[in-house]
Amino acid sequence: AIYELSCEAYKHLGKTSNYYWIDPDGSGALGPLKVYCNMTEDKVWTTVYHDLQMQTSVGGNNLEKLSVLQLNYSATMDQISAITSSAEYCEQFISYSCKMSRLLNTPEGNPYTWWVGKANEKHYYWGGSGPGIQKCACGIERNCTDPKYYCNCDADYKQWRKDAGMLSYKEHLPVSQIVVGDIDRPGSEAKVSVGPVRCQGDRNYWNAASFVTSSSYLHFSTFQGETSADISFYFKTSASDGVFLENLGNTDFIKLELKSATEVSFSFDVGNGPVEIVVRSPNQLNDDQWHRVNAERNVKQASLQVDQLPLEVRKAPTEGHTRLELYSQLYVGAAGGQRGFLGCIRSLRMNGVTLDLEERAKVTPGVKPGCSGHCTSYGMYCANGGKCVEKYNGYSCDCSKTAYDGPFCIKDVGAFFEEGMWLRYNFHSPGTSMKDLVSRTLLSSADPEITAPDLNLNKEELSFSFSTTKSPCVLLYISSYTQDYMAVLVKPAGNLQIRYSLGGIKEPYNIDIDHRNMANGQPHTVNITRNGRDIILQLDHYPPTSYSLPATSDIQFNSPKALFLGKVIEIGKIDQDIYKYNTPGFTGCLSRVQFNQIAPLKAALRPTNASSHVHIQGELVESNCGASPLTIPPMSAATDPWHLDSASADFPYNGQAIGDGVNRNSAIIGGVIAVVIFTILCTLVFLIRYMFRHKGTYHTNEAKGAESAESADAAIMNNDPNFTETIDESKKEWLI
Questions:
Q1: Cα–Cα distance measured from residue 234 to residue 294, given in angstroms and rounded to the nearest whole number
Q2: For residue range 551-562, what is the model confidence (pLDDT) as tens digits?
Q3: Which tens digits make up the pLDDT trace of 487-525?
Q4: d(Cα 421, Cα 424) in Å, to the nearest integer?
Q5: Which fold is adopted by the domain 413-429+456-622?
Q6: Is-above-0.85 flag for pTM?
Q7: Left if phi > 0, otherwise alpha if psi is -120 to 50, otherwise beta: which for 644?
Q8: For labeling, which of 93, 109, 483, 695 is most exposed (least CB within 10 Å)?
Q9: How far apart are CA 399 and CA 388, in angstroms?
Q10: What is the annotated signal peptide range for this record (predicted)?
Q11: What's the CATH fold of domain 52-201?
C-alpha cells in the first residue's frame, strides 16, 4: 500500500480528523506508522501516543532512591524524529505532582528528577521552561508558591503541589524516560503525567519553488541512487512540456519530464541502454492544478505513478548492469539545453530526503521560493459556501459567511431550544451606522445594487435543519418595519407551513406540506429560495417543488427588521395563527440556520462581528441534535481505501444479511436451544438457593482482590477489565 507522507497530505485529500497511516520517508527504511491527525480550522496536528498512564504514582511506601518510568510509543524513535524534524512546531505536556518530593532542587542544587529525550540525552528543565534553564514554568513566570524556589515542588511542602507545562524544544522530543528522585523519605509521594507528542505543520510538504523562465533551474549535489532510487514530488503548470529533473553520468543518466500535456516520462540508463516508462493521463496535466509523481527504480524493476492513475512497471533485465553511476550535479527544472519546466515543484523527495527548494531558490535567478495558487487544487474542499483563502504554505477555508465551521466548513452549528426560549437577530437599528451597513450587506444576498439604508429584498435564500416532537410551533419568523413578514411554522398536526405576507393581497400566501409529519423527532432540512414571484422549496432530500406568489402580491420584502427563532416577540400586530403557535414555543433543535449571508445561530454561539446583533432569552446550549443526515451515506470502513483498518477488518457476514433458508432455519434452531439452556440454568439456580437457604451463609458481590486493594474503587478497577478500558478511552480523548 502507498501511504501519504504526513497528516498535511491527508488534509489536502479532504480527510477529516482520524487515525491514519503515514510514511514520513516514503519507501525508505523507516516504514509506515499510525498517528492521529487532528484537522483544525487553520492547523494540522500529528499526534503520537505512548503507554504511560496519566498520574502514574511513584514513591509512597517503597524506599527506593530512584524510580525510572519508561515510555513506549506507538512508533520508533527514528519515525518520531522524522515527524519532528519536518514539523514547524512540536510540543509535549509534562506534569509533576508532589508531596514532600522536590523536583529540580532549585535554585542551585543538583536536580532530583530529570527526563530523557531524543538521542538519550538527559534534560534538567521542565514543562513551560526551555533548554539550559533549570526552572519550572512558575520560575519563568515568577509565580511559584515560595518565591525562593523556581519550582512549586522544590519548596518541599507536605501538601500536594504541581509543576506542569509544555516542552516545546522539538529537537529534544519525545520524552522517552523520566527518572524520579527524592521519593525515599517517609511521606514523600509524587505523580507523573506525560501527554502525547503533538506536531503541527509540515515544512517538507510545502517546500516549493516557482520556475518563471524556461531556462531557469536549481542545482544540487549528485544524486546517490546507485542501486535504488525513490523520487516523489508535486508539480503544477500551464505549460505542455518541460524537464522536471535530470542527473547525468558518463553514459548513465536519470530523468523525469513532462513530455506532453498528458504524458509524464521516467527514463534512465544503468549501462544496458536507455529505458523509458511513460504514464498517459486521460485528463490534461497542464491544468494549473497540483499533480503527484512517484518514480522508483531498484535492481529488480522500475515504476512510475502519476496521481491515482495505474502504476506503470518495467522489469529489469535478469543480466547486465544494475548500478546507476552519476557524476554531474542534479538539475531541477531544466538541463542540457533542453526546454525547462515552467511552473511549480514542491515536496521533492529523493530517497527519503526532502530537497530544500525554497532556500536554493532564494539565491537563484529565474526561480522564486514558494508557490501561490493552492486554491485552484484544493478550493473544492471548502464546502457550503466556504471561501478558499490562499496561504503561503497551503490554504484554509473561510467559513465566516456560512452557517458552518470546521476546517472544511462542513460542521453544523446548532443549538437545543428549551420551551419558552427564543433568539432574535436584529438586521439593523433605526439609525444607520457602519455596523448596520455591514449587516445590511450580508442581508442583501450579495446583490451590489441593493444598498443601505432603505433595504428592500426582491429575493432571499433561507436554509436550516430542525427536529422536534411538539406542535404547533414557530420555527422561524422574519419581521419588518412595515406589515411584511415571512414565517416557517409547524401546524398542530405536525405539517410544515411556509407563510409569505408581502402586501398586495388580503391574506398571507401559504405553502402547506400536508402529507408529511415533520414533528416526528427526526432531523429535517428546509431550503427556501425566492426570486421575485417564484419560490422553490426543498424538504429533506426530496425533489425541489416550485410555487408562485399570486399575481396581485407585492414581490418586495420591505425593510426587514429582525429574524426570530423559536418564538416571536415583536412590537405591533402579529398574525393570529402565529400568535397562537407562539405558546408555549418551540422545543427541539435548530441547526445551520442561514438567511442570505446571515447565520444567526452561529453569530450567537461563535464570537463574530455580528454577535452584537443577537439577543437571546433563556440559555442557548450548543448541540448538533438538529443536524440533518447526509444525502449519501458515508463510505463503509471496508470499502474506504483511506480507512486504516480496511484491509484487516474482519466483519461478520461481510455486512450481508442472512439470506438463504438454511441460515434462517439454523438461526431458529439456535434460538430454541438457547431458550432451553436458559430454562435449565434458572431451575438449577432455584434448587441451589433452596438447598442452602437454612445454612446461614451469604455471598457478597465484593470484587475479587478487594482484600489487597486500598479502596473500594481500586477493587472495582482491579476486577473489571472494562473499567481500565474506559479509563484508557477517556484518556485518549482528553489527550487528543
A1: 9
A2: 888 888 888 889
A3: 999 988 888 999 998 888 888 899 988 778 889 888 999
A4: 10
A5: Jelly Rolls (2.60.120)
A6: no
A7: alpha
A8: 695
A9: 9
A10: none
A11: Jelly Rolls (2.60.120)
